[in-house]
Design goal:
This protein is globular. It has one domain. The chain contains one helix and two strands, in the order ββα. It is mainly β. It comes from Nostoc cf. commune SO-36.
């Protein structure tokens, strides 16, 4: 199971993802769609650990 609650991600001082909540039950799949620039790649990079959330969220 994947569960994300209140995720916030920044590039420098730019607030890219704001309070994202996502829950994917075991054995399920989701599709993440949206127009350019809405944070799809940022979300995936954060889930994979390539981008870090601010220190105060640990």
């Amino acid at each position: 199971m994947l569960k994300i609650s209140n995720l916030n991600v920044y590039y420098g001082e730019s607030h890219i993802l704001r309070n994202v909540d996502l829950s994917v039950p075991s054995g399920q799949m989701i599709c993440l769609i949206g127009r350019n620039g809405v944070g799809k790649s940022t979300l995936l990079k954060t889930i994979m650990g390539l981008l870090k959330t601010p220190q105060w969220y640990y």
